[in-house]
Amino acid sequence: MEWSGWGDPAEAPSLSPVALELLRGALGVRRPAPAVAAEDVRLPQVRLDDRLREELSAIVGVEHLRLDDRIRLLHTRGKSTTDLLRIRSGDADDAPDAVIFPGSHEEVLELLHRCGEAHIAVVPFGGGTSVVGGLQPRRDGFSAVVACDLGRMNRLLELDEESRTATLEPGLRGPDAEALLTDRGYTIGHHPQSFEYASVGGFAAVRSSGQASAGYGRFDERVVALRVATPRGTIETGRAPKSAAGPDLRQLFLGSEGTLGVITAIRIEVRPVPVARVYEGWRFDSFAAGREAVRRLAQDGSLPTVLRLSDEAETAVNLARPGQVGDGGRAGGALAITGYEGKADEVEWRRGAVSAVLRALPAEPDPSAGADWFDDRYKGPYLRDALLGAGALVETLETATFWSGVERLYHDVGGALRESLTKLGTPPVVLCHISHVYASGASLYFTVGAAQLDDPVAQWHAAKSAASDAILGAGGSITHHHGVGVDHREHYFREIGPTAIEALRAVKATLDPAGILNPGVLLG
Amino acid sequence: MEWSGWGDPAEAPSLSPVALELLRGALGVRRPAPAVAAEDVRLPQVRLDDRLREELSAIVGVEHLRLDDRIRLLHTRGKSTTDLLRIRSGDADDAPDAVIFPGSHEEVLELLHRCGEAHIAVVPFGGGTSVVGGLQPRRDGFSAVVACDLGRMNRLLELDEESRTATLEPGLRGPDAEALLTDRGYTIGHHPQSFEYASVGGFAAVRSSGQASAGYGRFDERVVALRVATPRGTIETGRAPKSAAGPDLRQLFLGSEGTLGVITAIRIEVRPVPVARVYEGWRFDSFAAGREAVRRLAQDGSLPTVLRLSDEAETAVNLARPGQVGDGGRAGGALAITGYEGKADEVEWRRGAVSAVLRALPAEPDPSAGADWFDDRYKGPYLRDALLGAGALVETLETATFWSGVERLYHDVGGALRESLTKLGTPPVVLCHISHVYASGASLYFTVGAAQLDDPVAQWHAAKSAASDAILGAGGSITHHHGVGVDHREHYFREIGPTAIEALRAVKATLDPAGILNPGVLLG
Lengths: 524, 524
Known about the structure:
Two copies of one chain form a homodimer.
Chain A: H1 17-27, H2 50-60, E1 65-66, H3 69-74, H4 81-88, E2 98-100, H5 105-118, E3 120-125, E4 144-149, E5 156-160, E6 165-168, H6 174-182, E7 186-187, H7 200-205, H8 213-216, H9 219-222, E8 223-230, E9 233-237, H10 250-253, E10 262-269, E11 271-272, E12 276-284, H11 287-300, E13 306-310, H12 312-317, E14 334-342, H13 344-359, E15 364-365, H14 368-376, H15 380-389, E16 392-402, H16 403-423, E17 429-434, E18 441-451, H17 456-473, H18 489-496, H19 498-511
Parallel strand pairs in A: 2-4, 3-4
Antiparallel strand pairs in A: 1-2, 5-6, 6-10, 7-11, 8-9, 8-10, 12-14, 12-15, 13-14, 13-17, 16-18, 17-18
């Protein structure tokens, strides 16, 4: 992972002259905004004395405690636009004092125990792909901050073919987990945009939802058991797919964002590798017409494996094909992507049923759009980086609500983004798509582009704050799949209310009495 | 509801001479065990002084605070076999001092506040159908115990047709909730055996699973929002079908069994009333062969709406047709019930897909078994009452685990029941069926019959304790859909472990600082 942006720099696209012209014309972008050199990034002094270094090294092995700047830099914050703007400007104030790579559940337990005694904050670190400040702990009051990188815990612990479950260690990245499973004929089928770098533990800790959620479900819906290392010891939960033995404890750790414990094993439902795969596109007259269509599919229970619907603005800039953004030749109306995966007859049957509904609505087929989207489905973050470098401010945010509230939510959040950024003198482009549908509601995913001001972090905060207020005002949830982190904390508290926050803090005080786990994130 | 048994006495069957002969022959039942007369039941003195009576009356209205013996008797414990054995012997020591019928969320809040100050234990009471001691609170240390009967809170608060959700008050019984919805063209589709008497609030509080769970899902899977009155105020949770805003708080109250708050509104996904309905039966050579078949259906994702599989013993006594128990004419092998509900073409397609799989396995169709089961699907509890009166000890228990553990769980629990009861001199009949299947596992539901000893409560405790030990030993969950109550508390603690219990107790201490809500149940 690149310290100043997403993924592998070799994969990063350069922007076409058409795209650059579009930025200048549509957004008024004036000048590029390059990153500083890595050696010019300011890292804080390491606050970890020799005795503690030795003690922590004794737990994980001396080669698995790292204090060098390069490693610390790579564990500084996550991959939100403000994270990147800060680090690209040379600010790595949130760098951990050290990065520790435990190799086992027992080592994690020991680390938590020792860090609790020494009042060292511990940031569980998977893929480092948080876009909500989930890796930016509060530092004050702690003797040091260490990132607990789970990358060495990357085994497939068990494949239970009879139960169709796999037990995975948390540090496995998406592609590595899939490779271990597809070798044996199985897949998780969980493919968020961050798939190539994000980890299985992170998927669980933030209730991740993948692009194929319509067919495979959310990650948290498919987790059947968890092992968690807490400062108070081990919790193992999940003896059956479902149980009536009290509140579902799995659901306490799913979404806990490293604040209640470190998830060290995840047992998840797997499926046979699909033998057939068809992706295609459909074009509706309008986003409103498309929304009615995807709602109908969700409520009739005849969903494709992947179902996404771009609004008119997103369709016009062709964002469903990140490789062809700005190529508006095929624009117009609202583009939906439908994908089917599974056994050949199942794919054919389901595709036939969905197509019949869509054709009658009416929607026009746009067959090539599906393959284009599939090819480019992980490219969004690279595109964002290129645009940041070119002087644009680009970020995404997402929410969800029930169907009867979707239109208002769409209207209010888009309006808040346009109004707040226009007021700052940078009228934005606001794009939106529905990427996750349920019988009772859907998510909305917004992409915003504007020209960068001199202080783009403050600029984005103003827009984000207006959008977050609009989300709560319209009855939406502050996040559908990105999580809370630090960035959504204020609005999360408003969403669930002070009594519920107190109840969750009581859980935290029990499991993490010294408050060392990801302080300031989610509940802190 | 009858004080000494299930439901409406007019509906209770009398046992046929064939059945009685079977009891004598197979179980060695010697003499009937009639209930005492209602007027001979011993109720404890009411412990609620005049001042408190007046204060509580002022909250709900004087006609909604009841202290008469008849009402207290009807709110004493639930409907487990030991509950019935006790009350039929005249023991109503657990009767509440008073029964309060609040009419609104605000009245519940006020009641909880006042009862907290006065240290009065409050037992939220829906349909009164708990079979795990969920209505049998700890009395010591409290000035009084009141049952909070939610029967007056029985409205459909909102039907959101666009989102396909209904918001219901907790006191609605199953049939009343369905009637309100089917009038408008919708159904919840949740039909546990207790359907005719259990309440919507109870379904939520104990994570109920209905007979049609394969098609409609569990009740807790379909709840999208909850309003809860706690002693610390109101918590509202659920702004979207799914969210990544921290742990799913709905899942903290689902399964909380009245210990964290009183659920006063439930928003749940509804579906259009099915226009087509087909029920049929299939016969496998053995329970093992049938298990493989239902696992395959669950893992292929081609499930009927209802799917049940009886083992050889249950098939032999014909328990899937409670109206024809003992008529073994059609017995042999393992009987599965498959039911399909929905739109006509959907039912036909699904039925065709399932039937093709089953026929090939091979399984033999037994078409009339489906309709027979459907007709008798709520009759089990009546049959149990008749058998109790005839001198048999009859009870059920249930568990769940992952598929790879199902065979061992089946073997060990059945073995523990047979061994423990045989040791007491009452060799039992042990029947079992699978009634809820998932991709990764299934539930097992055991029915046990034996001759009653002089102390049938102690007799059952010995058997139940052996069975519960066997469940935990085989890796199962102590309950799949009955809940924890008082009866499963010890094994629940062993299942989730002391640290998790402490975490949940911290939530309780936050929301219910005086510990008045259903003390002794689940966490207490």
